[in-house]
Structures
1.
Amino acid sequence: MPRPGYDTPALTLRDVRKGYATGRGGYLSVLKGVSLDLQHGEVVAIVGESGSGKSTLLHLMGTLDKPDAGQVLLNGENVFALPDAQLAAFRNSHIGFVFQFHHLLPEFSALENVAMPALIGGSSKRRACELAQALLGQLALTDRAHHRPAELSGGEQQRVAVARALVNSPDLILADEPTGNLDARTADALHQEIIRLSRSCNQTFVLVTHNPVLAAACDRVLQLDGGELRPVSGTEVIV
Ligand code: ADP
Ligand code: MG
């Protein structure tokens, strides 16, 4: 469902191409012209074999890397036309990331890790802590708020990472195999949390996953194959 006041897609990719220079002057073409429109509130799964370019695609969507050709528009804004400092501020306020490995800061508590993007975005310490407490509560982590990452289980670490991705109420959340490092039961619980949160917040989610159950719970499933993105039905997912 579109958010009020938004008449443009949350994310548009136009003929995006990306490759990497390899040793001895070679070139590996990874994305060979990917086009896509995501509407506000859509939850989309991206599947594909290992090495097919899923992480490359997510990095471009999240403005962490630039395409060789083509355009990335977020809320209609041609993000790579922005000066670097503005792009960094845009990323902090509009995009949330969850990676396969949590990337939490080891010397900070769960609460501080979640509050960090809000502080960077200019919230007061008090406001950032309130937001972080509320999210930790939603993810059943209230009694872990003062634990450091090393004092948390793998599932708890990833739930903290999800809370951190959501703290600035980003329009777009990008999750790259968020449960790939967890046992099946913990992964299932986290999948349910992610789907529940995405539905309740009406945010746009892109989830890279190998899990057919998670993919089938999304609005759309897109498969990356041969550098191109094509729609597949949830039940077709076999990777
Ligand atoms: P996936 O996430 O689907 O497993 P990636 O996007 O990580 O795939 O990688 C796609 C292809 O690009 C792989 O063959 C990988 O080896 C290559 N690749 C990824 N990043 C780089 C890089 N920085 N330099 C060179 N090759 C890369
Ligand atoms: Mg990957």
2.
Amino acid sequence: MKFFVDTADIADIKEMADTGLLDGVTTNPSLIAKSGRDFMEVTKEICDLVDGPVSAEVVALDHETMMKEAETLRKIADNVCIKVPLTIDGLKTCKKLTSDGTKVNVTLCFSANQALLAAKAGATFVSPFVGRHDDNGLDGMELIADIRRIYDNYDFGTEILVASIRNPVHVLKSALIGADVATMPPAVIKGLFKHILTDKGIEGFVADWEKTGQTIPTS
Ligand code: E4P
């Protein structure tokens, strides 16, 4: 499963990229607003930091303007992935862009039928929002399982990019279902490394090693 980080914060992206485990980045208009940075400028910086796809979202609601915005965004770098909302205009834009070879992430997906439409429109990625689904009394992971089944039934190449992830359990369940990508806030990625028994184990090994009075030569 690929790991994307869901942020427009450069320091966080650098930190995650340094682990060597980062496969891409997703942003959205709210994350850009939170960064306080110029959209074009920060997107270019992110694209220079990671080799994988960097989702940059159009803000227009009509197909014609979405296409014009996408034209500007895809000039930023080769690894820009155009993010469009799951609407009729968004999917028209998706179809057009992917036919030209541009990567497209269809966002704000909340039903398996919507995911089916995104795949038919040739989306590179579909982003079902599990956290927001759960917030509304529904089961986000059930949605991921349904989409996986539908995509496998018809051999769709669209990758399931699990979004709105709130905790490591969302990541675990996504991996068990066979989702292709998980996009996570930096805190959730960091949470994946943690286990109390790992910390306790290190503590014990360090204490016992000190008793030996030895060192491992490092040069
Ligand atoms: C993904 O592409 C979205 O930007 C993101 O995961 C939304 O998450 P939220 O529901 O926590 O805002």
3.
Amino acid sequence: MHFLAIETSCDETAVALLELEGRQGSRREPKLLAEEISSQVELHQDYGGVVPELAAREHMRNLPLLVDKLLGDRGLSLKDCGAIAVTRGPGLKGCLLMGVCFAKGVSVATDAALVGVNHIEGHLLAPLMDNPDLEFPFLALVVSGGHTEIVEVRGLGDYVILARTIDDAAGEAFDKSANLLGFPYPGGAGLAALADAQQSSRFKLPRVMRAAKGFSFSGLKTAVSVLVKQHQAHLDDPSIKGELAYAIQDAIVDALCFKLKKAVKASGIRRVAVSGGVSANQCLRARIREMKGVSLYLPSFGHCMDNAAMIGHVGALRYARGDRLPLDADVLSRWPVEEIR
Ligand code: KG4
Ligand code: ZN
């Protein structure tokens, strides 16, 4: 059976086509056949962040075209899809509505089954797609522009939050710091590349909230802003800018790894999966690999960032379990992991 997946929770319009083998209730993993993605990064760059209204309009324009291409390239049409998975939340309300309304329309027209997926659950289970040897239970570090959480993943829909941020997300800390250094939005990857080219830094940023359970990045943001202001006149000196980037990346990665180590120790679980946009960070990956006795599982590079394959993956697992989204269901702009059933 062909399975269509749609992701429109933020600034990427993404669609994927999967194939489901076996009967309902079987535990076979869905197979990814194709995916398409349209990024809105350039559209939002002038504003220094995602503008919800513009993002929603862009989804409205792009979604039908992407679905057309995804299916058309394989000689298929919407009638060939037996089920549709769509991101129901969390995310920007107007953006979520575009994906969910489109999916509902298709479901009404073709009788396809409809499954609503939690975006974070998509990230949480994304490492399973590309690592067939990853088994439950595992610890998942979800680090993106909107989320920073360590979750004990016991099975589909069985999640225990071990730590989460009380303010900014790790990706936000990267992007806001990058902005202070003059990188266009979202500057996380640019800052990381500059930091990776350095061996050390003369600057040191504070380590905050070590004793607390959760993460906090707002204090770091203030410290970065003070430090960058002190050296503003010398930012065109590549060694100053590079060493500032190194110190920022070091502080963010250190905060993530410190809490991750604590979670591994407390839970006794040594399988660690990292996902979300910041999981593309090479320094973070290297430091987790250095942790004694820990096995690291990563999604493929394209599945670290927002994508529809991860929504289709969770959608197919939930479809097999019998989960369906009723036609009168609303989108959920807030939908924390602990409320996923
Ligand atoms: O998961 P994602 O694509 O979207 C959200 O759901 O937020 O994550 C995007 C975030 C951005 O903050 C971006 O700057 C960050 O991931 N990011 C990185 C790197 N690549 C992407 N942060 C640090 N190092 C990277 N290499
Ligand atoms: Zn995401």
